[in-house]
Every structure is written in structure tokens, then in C-alpha cells.
Amino acid sequence: MVSFELQQKNFNKLAVKLREGQQKAGEEIFDYFSPKIYSFFMARTSHRETAEDLTQTVFLKLISKISTFNEKTGNFSIWFWQIVRNALTDYYREHKPIFLDNVDMDKKTAHSNSKEAFQDILAKDQVREVLETIKGFSEEEQEIFSLRYVSSLSYKELSFALSKPEGALRVAVHRLSQKIKKAVTKN
């Protein structure tokens, strides 16, 4: 497994190659970041098509703004996640929030038996309950939840994405999970 620091240097090199017009570098960036970004947008918007559109928008912005990235003074991951966060902010400025009724979290289209179907329904209800609970939290807590639990960012990646110390984020994530547990067990 590649160390986090080495991975960041590789992203900086890929960004330089993309800026130079090397399409393969853009494909590598897309392959790594797109599932994380899509998950982040899905958690924040609760709408599959919106998450897909926002993910596409981010990569179009990446292509149009890659010339502004300076690998000597910046870190690609921080720079890129700022584009992601700005895209979400722009989206919410232009649109009203979409409610969880539109969430399509079920990846199976058919079930082998009714017990499995019931367990899937129960799991979806629990996920919906957590997501509904998160909606009442601060914007920062929602963002931390989305990046850590939905996009599965490591604490180092989270630190880069939010420009906050890793230790402070560990504490914030712990407090957030305690707050979620408390809120969900109340209901």
C-alpha cells in the first residue's frame, strides 16, 4: 500500500501531467476521486442524479482550472477538495434541498427470499434515520460525516480536505458519532 505522503506527491505529479495535456493523468485522477466525490454528493444531496451531475461538474471544473494549480505551493488533494466543496455550495445557492424520499440506496433489484428483503428494508430504514438525524446538525458536522463515513476518507485525507489538524478531526468525528448514537437511540 502506498503511503499517504507518497500518494499526495503522485497526485501533484498527475496534476502537472494533466495540465500538460496528458489525458491518462486525468483518467487516473478521475478513477481515484470519482467514487469518493459521488458518495460525498450523494450524502449531501440525497439524490442520485444530482450527485452524478455534481461529480461531472467537478471534473469539468478541474479541467478548466488545472492551469491555476501550482504544485510548488499547493497540495492537489486540498486544492481539488476545495473545488468539490465549492461545487456543493454553488449547487445549494441555486437549488432547494432535495429530500430523502429520492434516495436510491438499494443496489439489489431482486431478492432471493423475503427474510433478505426484510433485512434490506430494515437496514435502509436505519440509514434513512441516521441521514435524517444528520440533517439537523451543523453544516460542518454534515460535511465531516459525509467525508468520513460516506466517502470513507482517512483522517489524513479529511485533514487535507478540510484544512484542519488531524487530531482535532479525530475528536470531532468521535463527538459526532456520539451525538448520532444519542439522537438515534432517543427515537
Structure description:
With 187 residues, the protein is mainly α. The chain folds into two domains: 1-98, Rna Polymerase Sigma Factor, Chain: A (Orthogonal Bundle); 113-187, Arc Repressor Mutant, subunit A (Orthogonal Bundle). It has eight helices and no strands. It has helices at residues 4-19, 23-45, 48-65, 76-94, 114-135, 139-150, 155-162, 166-186. The radius of gyration is 18 Å and the shape is globular. The model is unreliable at 97-113 (pLDDT under 50).
Helix-strand category: mainly alpha
What would CATH call the class of the largest domain?
Mainly Alpha
N to C succession of SSEs: HHHHHHHH
Number of strands: 0
N- and C-termini, Cα separation: 41 Å
Q: Write down the overall geometry.
A: globular
Short descriptors:
187 residues; mainly alpha; Rna Polymerase Sigma Factor, Chain: A; Arc Repressor Mutant, subunit A; 8 helices; 74% helix
Short recap of the structure:
With about 190 residues, this protein is mostly helical. It contains eight helices and no strands. Helices cover about 75% and strands about 0% of the residues.
Write the layout of secondary structure elements.
Layout (H helix, E strand, L loop, with lengths): L3 H16 L3 H23 L2 H18 L10 H19 L19 H22 L3 H12 L4 H8 L3 H21 L1
